[in-house]
Amino acid sequence: MGVMGSSSSGQGPLSGVKVCILGASDFATDARFRKQTATLTEAGATVLALGVGSSAAPDLLDSAFEVRLLKPSIRQPRLGQEDVWWPLRVAVNLTYTNILTWWHLGRHVFAEEMQLASVATGFGPDIVHAYNIRTLPAAVRVKRATGARIVYDCRDLYTDVEYVSEHTRRRYREAEAQSIVHADAVLAVSEPLAEILQDRYGISRPTIIHNGPAKVMQAPLPIANPVRLFFQGAYRPNRNLASLIGAMKYLQGRATLTMQGFGDMEVRLREQVAALGLEDTVTFLAAADPLEVVESASRFDVGVICYKGDTLNLRSAVPNKLMDYLGAGLAVAASDLPGHRSVLDGSPAGIIIDPSSAESIAEALGSLVAEPRRVEAMKAAALELARTYQWDEQGKRMLGVYESLSSPPGTNHV
């Protein structure tokens, strides 16, 4: 277990309140985590973040809170080391990681539950903030041991994702039904997700805390010619990125596409670009730091989200990238999904597209890039909409939840 950063607290509405955040990752690419911890520490809370990983991101080393990482159960194979010929290393890593991830999720569904609970209990928190169902059972253990209150932050509907087995999804559903009743407050990242949780478990309406942008640009940049399309985020099969790249065959000369992100799929996506002869039309950028995505995105014109919505999780989500596109002053082209509509309906900042094929995506984007004045108006409207969702406002709402739960240190909350 590694220890990084240093905890601190100051004066504010949460002065003297100890908060323990439980996560199933190392927080490296987690913008919401950074925004929430900044809000909590600025309000005076003493924060300990417990996650799973081998080392913390550099920007967390000197943070105003403490990060402890439990060693992950999946280890890197020998052929994954850098001194091995890189094509073989990539092939082995993809195969090995995929197999072990499925095995790990099947056997260790609840992210190091006992270890997280043990360390958190030793910290003696007043409030435990559990990210998703994978850490909620550990939070319940801490509550039973210490009397801490629980904030359940449901950021994804793990009970309805496609990348785990049905057996694992069933275990998630059973655990969420048993554990969510112990939460003293439930947060959700979208209106559709809050509605699902309320209806499914008969709980009070969760508080909506959107993943609002940490920054909103002052003004959008002028539109370029060709129009600059942009995708930001993880490269995963459920992002429908092959269809987006395929659509660029029909948009050559009128638009370019820049993809900024991370993930094992990048190799295949680059191969597709080369096979289609789109090297001058589609380019790749390394992932931006989590809190610098908005500024990085502001150089483009249209942010694209073309999920097909194959799962309830995708249909109910409001992705980080949607909020960041708005904060960057980009026109938005997004799939017709309830989560996207919950933000974009009623605003001229975005259009709804049909993501069913490369041709349908190209048709929607083609009609948009053919109207540069419309794109310019959408970019301005995006900034106006972003200001209603920006993190300053979301953070205030989250603090309201915390203040309603907090009480003088040492008070038994049971």
Summed up:
The chain has helices at residues 31-42, 86-107, 113-123, 136-146, 166-179, 191-201, 241-247, 266-275, 293-297, 312-316, 320-328, 338-344, 358-369, 372-389, 391-405; strands spanning 2-5, 18-22, 46-52, 66-70, 127-131, 149-154, 185-188, 207-208, 227-234, 255-262, 282-286, 302-305, 331-335, 350-353. It is an alpha/beta fold.
Largest sheet: 8 strands, mixed
Indicate the mean pLDDT: 89
Q: Biggest sheet, strands in spatial order?
A: 1-4-3-2-5-6-7-8
Q: List the total number of helices.
A: 15
Whole-number radius of gyration? 22 Å
Point out poorly predicted stretches. Answer: 1-9, 76-80, 102-108, 409-414
Beta-sheet strand percentage?
15-25%
Write the element-wise H/E pattern from the N-terminal end onward. Answer: EEHEEHHEHEHEHEEHEHEHEHHEHEHHH
What would you call the shape? globular
Kindly state the number of beta strands. Answer: 14
Distance between the termini: 30 Å
Category by helix and strand content: alpha/beta
How much helicity do the residues have? 40-55%
Explain the layout of strands and helices.
Elements: E1 2-5, E2 18-22, H1 31-42, E3 46-52, E4 66-70, H2 86-107, H3 113-123, E5 127-131, H4 136-146, E6 149-154, H5 166-179, E7 185-188, H6 191-201, E8 207-208, E9 227-234, H7 241-247, E10 255-262, H8 266-275, E11 282-286, H9 293-297, E12 302-305, H10 312-316, H11 320-328, E13 331-335, H12 338-344, E14 350-353, H13 358-369, H14 372-389, H15 391-405
Parallel strand pairs: 2-3, 2-5, 3-4, 5-6, 6-7, 7-8, 9-10, 9-12, 10-11, 12-13, 13-14
Antiparallel strand pairs: 1-4
Helix pairs in contact: 1-15, 3-4, 7-13, 11-14
